[in-house]
Amino acid sequence: MNWLPVEKSWPAPDAGDALLQAAAAGDLAAVRCLIGTGVDLETRDAAGRTALMHAAHGGHTAVVRALAAAGADIEVRDARNWSALMIAAHEGRLPSVRLLAHARARRLNPCAGAATR
């Protein structure tokens, strides 16, 4: 039995906007939930900023870590040509800077730290 009629023409909530807001607020649980739905991690706001950039701006290192681990592009640039790493550095968010710098180094040299003979 269907208690609530659903209007098929209603727009679905935009998961990308929800991700941007959750990342900016540092809401790790919401970000993880949205990642689990397969949300587009590269959704951008009007300034060209992604969720990773919003998390970096706010110094929400756990959210930065979750987004990077989920595959968010750490090299992407906003409308001002700033990356998440640049934003974190500008805002003085040292833990996020360290995390993003380390993630960038691993992507540039995936063999770094591997044992050599």
CATH topology category name: Serine Threonine Protein Phosphatase 5, Tetratricopeptide repeat
The CATH class: Mainly Alpha
Low-confidence stretches: 1-12
Number of strands: 0
Largest sheet: none
Total individual domains: 1
**What is the C-alpha radius of gyration, as a whole number of Å?**
17 Å
Percent in strands: under 5%
Mean pLDDT: 86
The rounded distance between the terminal residues' Cα atoms is 67 Å
Q: Using the 3D structure, state the CATH architecture.
A: Alpha Horseshoe
| Tally of helical segments | 6
What is the H level of CATH, i.e. the homologous superfamily? Answer: Ankyrin repeat-containing domain
Describe this structure in words.
By secondary structure, this protein is mostly helical. The protein has a single domain (15-108), classed as Alpha Horseshoe (Serine Threonine Protein Phosphatase 5, Tetratricopeptide repeat), CATH 1.25.40.20. Helix content is 50%, strand content 0%. It contains six helices and no strands. It has helices at 15-25, 28-36, 51-58, 61-69, 84-90, 94-108. It starts with 14 loop residues before the first helix and ends in a 9-residue tail after the last helix.
Keywords for this entry:
117 residues, mainly alpha, Serine Threonine Protein Phosphatase 5, Tetratricopeptide repeat, disordered N terminus, Ankyrin_rpt-contain_sf, Ankyrin repeat domain-containing protein
